[in-house]
Amino acid sequence: MATITPRENREGQVIGYQAKVRRVGHKPVSKTFEKKKDAERWAKSVETDMDRRVFLDHSQADSTTLGALLRRYREEVTPAKRGAVQEAGHLIVVEDDEICLRRLSALSPQDIASYRDRMLACDYAPATVVRRINLIATAIAHGRREWGMHLPSNPAEAKLTARPKGADRKRERRLQPARVEVTYQRDPDTGNEVELSHHIPAEEERLMAGLAASKHGAWLVPMAKLALETAARQGEICALDWADVDLAKRVMTIRGLSGDGSKNGEIRKVPLSTAALDALRSFPTYGNKNGPVVGEDQRLLKVTFGRVVDRAGIADLTFHDLRHEATSRLAKIYTNPLELMRVTGHKTLSMLARYYHADAEELAQRLA
Q1: What is the pLDDT of residue 29?
Q2: Domain end residue (candidates: 146, 174, 190)
Q3: For the chain, what is the radius of gyration of the CA atoms?
Q4: H/E segment holding residue 3
Q5: Distance (Å, whole) CA 170 – CA 167
């Protein structure tokens, strides 16, 4: 049975009408309208849907803002996920935007598109923009599925809100070999141009020299060498335990930060080359039977690596690029892509293709 109750202000003036519907088998639902006619129409519609057993309670979506949903998701769901720290960081940034003031029931694809455009205007990388929109879509989907946030559709889904182009562009950064740069300088005595040759050392050489000279070089040099020999991720190396390193069998077991799998959720065994063994033996913790291989905080090492790269004048290089380089080098050894995937940990050929970068000169040499 539906009841319509006037809502009054402190002066006794009617400012709206609250419609409340009660039905056996349903929780009471209510909604306030400015006009009595609208309240009656809504109550009748709800009663009809309840009788037809198709009623969905939208009160949660009406009273919950996107910001409240994202905070709840960040606090209750994110901590149990791999990459929780990174995901929480993205969610906190999203929560500061004006879009989070919108109630879920009023959130539209146009709102998501406006947020997308604001991020692009602030020069966020397309991949970052996609990551944050996808997080919004994931949180809304979870709210609809688990928390009773009934919405007719998910406004952040890709089919409703276009993602920026270029986000899935394959990164092809590899370490560059030594080269000679030629410049021209005018001779002040003769007025003639003089050709000058400058030898630019290989990026790997400059990188290792810079890492060795840094405060945390004792950790970063063997980490970088191990990454280049095994294609292991930085987090995987930092999570290594000496109990997972069998120097006699030349095998390293990668369990990831959680201990129960790497980024893709799988534990893998990686063969160790002679150079990889040398890198492991050069860690300050070498000789321990148990305990972490890397005895320094990963975040500190990541910051230091970035500073070394900048000081060495190496443009646009991250530690993760060493995984790209290693995968391309290992492809010359493991010509069977299935064997290569077992070493690198990629689950599909399409993902492996994002990391394998053989240049045209290399391919031409194989044809010779």
Answers
A1: 72
A2: 146
A3: 29
A4: strand 2-8
A5: 9
In a domain, 197, yes or no: no
Residue 9 has pLDDT above 70, yes or no: yes
Are residues 106 and 132 located together in one domain of the fold?
yes
SS (H, E, C) 248-317: CCCEEEECCCCCCCCCCCCCEEEECCHHHHHHHHCCCCCCCCCCECCCCCHHHHHHHHHHHHHHCCCCCC
CA atoms within 13 A on the CB side of 112: 27
Residue 189 lies in a domain: no
Q: What domain range includes position 73?
A: 63-146
Same domain flag for 37 and 104? no
Phi, psi for 26 (deg, rounded to 5): -130, 150
Please write the tens of the pLDDT for every residue from 321-364: 999 889 888 888 888 888 888 888 777 777 777 666 556 566 55
Burial class of residue 48 (count of CB atoms within 10 Å of its CB; 0-12, 13-18, 19+): exposed
For the segment 34-75, what is each residue's pLDDT rounded down to a tens digit? 888 888 887 787 677 666 765 565 666 677 899 999 999 999
Q: Label the pairing between strands 268-271 and 193-200.
A: unpaired
**Cα(308)–Cα(287) distance, rounded to whole angstroms?**
28
314 domain residue, yes or no: yes
